[in-house]
Amino acid sequence: MSHRHILILLLLLQPITVAAGESEWILFLKNPTTDSYNPLIARIEKCKKEDCKCDVKPDSAAVIKLIELIKIQNAFAVDIAFSSLKILDGGDLEDVIRSLGLLTESSPKLLLDYSIKHNIPDYKLEDLLTMLPLETVDDNRAKIETVQKRIKSLSKVNSPPLVEIRGKAIIILGKYLDELRTQP
User: Fold this and answer.
1) Residue 16 within a domain
2) Digit-coded pLDDT (tens) for 149-182
3) Taking the model in full, what pTM does it have?
4) Which end of the chain is less enclosed by CB atoms within 10 A, N or C?
5) Residue 84 is part of which domain span?
């Protein structure tokens, strides 16, 4: 066997390396459990403090899988998504915000719990609540119906620790509903 063939064989047999942080994302998205959540959340939190966003920022394919987990209300995924808001940008950030906003209808308590845990400021809460599904973009009636549905869903949350943030959320959506009603 020639030296060239041996070199090629050695290169093929070397373990595939992944970017820092990528392996944590892969493990978590394949199996979102405590064992895969803890290393990823620790890495994200550390990175947010040290401003190393690109080291742990997920790629778009990972964001799509994260969104799928949010849709099924996986609490680990919701927590990871809230933590990732500071490291995401562009379309990935919008997609994650939109998917978290969908929890307003399907699991408002989960959304409010993690909004408190992550100390989400009012302007970010407004983004989460008013970023509506893509299918409503050119349909004002659908926007109004979605916002009404969200207000109704939030109104059912009666947990004492969530009353204050629930009130803020309903006020935010009420103002947005008034804006929508004045649009042609």
Assistant:
1) no
2) 999 999 999 999 999 999 999 999 999 999 999 9
3) 0.84
4) C
5) 21-182
